[in-house]
Amino acid sequence: MQPLQVMQLTCEYRSNPVGIDVIQPRLSWKLVSERRNVKQNAYQIQVAAAPDLFDNQLIWDTGKVISDQSVHVVYEGAALESRTRYVYRIRVWSEHGQHSDWSETAYWETSLLTPSEWTADWITANIPRDPEQAEPIDMFRAAFQIDGQVSRAVIYATSLGLYELSLNGNRVGDALFTPGWTSYTSRLQYQTYPVTELLKDGGNALGMMVADGWYKGNLGWQKQRNCYGSERAVLLQLHITYEDGSEQIIKTGDNWKASEGPIRMSELYHGETYDARLEQNGWDTWDYDDSGWSGTNVREHSKEILIAQENNPARIVERLQPIELIRTPAGETVLDMGQNMVGWMHISVEGEAGRTITIQHAEVLDKEGNFYTGNLRSAKQTNVYICKGEGVETYEPRFTFQGFRYVKLEGYPGEPKLEQFTGCVITTDLETTGHFECSHPLINQLQHNIEWGQIGNFLDVPTDCPQRDERLGWTGDAQVFIRTAAFNRNVAPFFTKWVRDLKADQFRDGGVPHVIPDVLPQDTHSSSAWGDAAVICPWTVYLSYGDKRLLAEQYDSMKSWVDYIHSQGDNTYLWNSGFHFGDWLGLDAKENSYKGATPSDLIASAFYAYSTSLLAQTARVLGKSSDAATYESLYSKIKEQFRNEFVSPAGRLCAATQTAHVLALMFDLVEGEQKKRIVRTLVELIEENSFHLTTGFVGTPYLCHVLSDNGQHDIALKLVLQESYPSWLYPVTQGATTMWEHWDGVKADGSFWSDNMNSFNHYAYGAIGDWLYQVVAGLDTDHQSTGYKHIKIRPRVGQGFEYAKASLESMYGMIRSGWERTEHGEWIVSITIPANTTAEVHLQDARLETLLESGRSIFEAEGIYTRQQSADGVTITLGSGSYQFTANQ
Ligand code: RAM
Predict the structure, then answer these.
(1) For residue range 591-643, what is the model confidence (pLDDT) as tens digits?
(2) What fold, for 5-110?
(3) pLDDT digit string, tens, across residues 56-77
(4) Cα 321 from Cα 304, distance rounded (Å)
(5) Which CATH superfamily is domain 115-311 in?
(6) Is 741 part of the annotated catalytic residue set?
(7) Which of 107, 333, 460, 848 has a CA that sits 20 to 30 A from residue 243's CA?
(8) Architecture of domain 779-888 in CATH?
(9) Which residue, judged by its Cα, is nearest atom 5 of ligand 1?
(10) Does the active-site annotation cover 300?
(11) Could you read off the pLDDT of 809-826 as tens digits, one per residue?
(12) How far is CA 755 from the centre of its chain?
């Protein structure tokens, strides 16, 4: 292996992206070396139009730049052109004087950079429609001729509704739910598909199916339809470049034809009805006779709002086989998938023409073991397949998804066999970056449930739940979970897209809708802890990925949220007015209320302080010193007012709830003796409740953090390892495979929490995940040097765990932090720090004299800069490499 290598080049977080419209994209790379303590001292980037032009025709050459930056280096070459591939390569020099070879060549390809390049027309099907009904989906087609040798062909396509594209009978790409869900009135994504291989000489045909989807289908529990418009439409351009340099553009226009087809109905919540007898074989091929098809109409719709795909696409990422066929006491035929999953079923069946098979989905069986759909509210989650009667037929839907573990079959001919069914798991296809594991099997199952909650609810937007008639981008849920999410997967593009939608949907006065994209009626908005997503989410992307550009882009949105709070109520430094969800689903809520007992103004004022402090820090990061000073001073005043209003001089909080104490500590609102008393009271509140939590959406994410940070790690461990209700592990003991919305979604006697709001796949309480990574395994970034440029490692031993380990594929490379206790009472801590980063490692209770690294005295170990003994252990600063520390405890 080369001593120093540059690997995993990415442009805007993606490896070789095709179809991006970022005018100055950012390039990142990872250094790989077997040596310890490797830091980049300089880099060189070269960009050209093709690999053979690196030597004589460069578009951009940075020369040797003295810098340790290897993440988000902004392209500053000549202005990029549309529809162009740029290849790039990078080499680096290390501080040791080593240098790498040129990296392998990577590329990015631009899409249509200006709206005027969209010369195609928006078209709709000329078929009479009733926008208030779920109707058959539209199929569009156009035939065209290719005449000459094609060197490259690329399609740019989008729709009002959801589309699937085909060319000459082949599906184009594997992205699902295109064009994705954005704030459609101001931002509509299009996708880019290289299709050179799919074209053929002579006659060709394009096909496009379009369903209602988020654009105009049923959204929300109030049975709304047509949230963004009442007509489906498509827009497409196929750019063909011939070997002789000439170009041809095939585009949507009124020469396209339209028809209905086998999909008789398709709704995100309710499922799809597919009548295979109505298939039109070859409808997307050249020689299909479309004389019976309807025409299309050109319609006006903005092209200014078009943006290239920002997020990773949704795909089928895994296929599960059912584990059991159940005959329920009620006589139902039910498949058990063994996992609460999101996606759809692929079935294979042999039945006579007209046989109707109903495939219904549910998350749980009831107490008696029967199929239970009460918690789905009005969402039907039912796919219907009508056989054409031509031997073995296979079916899976296209424009709907279901949240389920159990599948009820009706009308299936004969005895269903497990192998005739496959569960297709669908999610935004994000890179898996994190792994957490420990010696406690139930905690490992909890981690599994957190990950599956994320997989199921990150389907283009971060949703609260994937099964009932809701599935919306609740801001509060997203902000509590984002840090956990950023460990498990690379969520930077996912949240970049979503916070831009937040900004787009934000009200003029800075208020933030409850859900993003916003589809709720506007009677209320801007609840504390929900609207704060405007600040917390961009800040967390900055913490986890060092993404300063996103912070800069969102700055106005962050600021207007804080200014909005500032303008509310009669006290500038408290937030004591308006509607708030409060400590949603807290167990100390009054009967028949979802709002926990912690006063809304206390929660609102605490979050006001927190968002203001993050905004002040953001202003510092962006060099806006006057704003920074303004918000720093505002933060101190809010803190002061918070204490005046809610804390007695001796440290008694006005609300004796766990959440009130958690927030005061988490957001640093109290100091000195007041703080000590609040910590003591929190512990008492937990003890009085026999080591159980009472917190809801707001208090739960921080509960263990404040305990561990304030000398009460053992109490945090007791809470996390608690198996009886209410606790994180109670659902695990009940066989949960995802996170539940309620601590008692299923009660100990097997009955359910009310039908009204009882999701079994709701990630909010999964926010405990970041405590597992950051505290139990001890893996965190320095907040002053974000994106894990400077890493903080501080693993915590504690009762109940024999070992714990976490890994994170960061922007710089793999970070590992793990520990184990040996039989001889030793504590072994193994860590890996990627090249071009440094770390501060704290080894709890270790003594410098006896501390070993890879079997040698800590004083002899290579790569270590400083070692310091303090009362509670040893703190070391070190450079990249893998280390193994052994301490006697
Ligand atoms: C429900 C969901 C969601 C929550 C809102 C306030 O619809 O539980 O998660 O954020 O309420």
Answers:
(1) 889 999 999 999 999 999 999 999 999 999 999 999 999 999 999 999 999 99
(2) Immunoglobulin-like (2.60.40)
(3) 999 999 999 999 999 999 999 9
(4) 45
(5) Galactose-binding domain-like (2.60.120.260)
(6) yes
(7) 107
(8) Sandwich (2.60)
(9) 474
(10) no
(11) 999 999 999 999 998 889
(12) 27
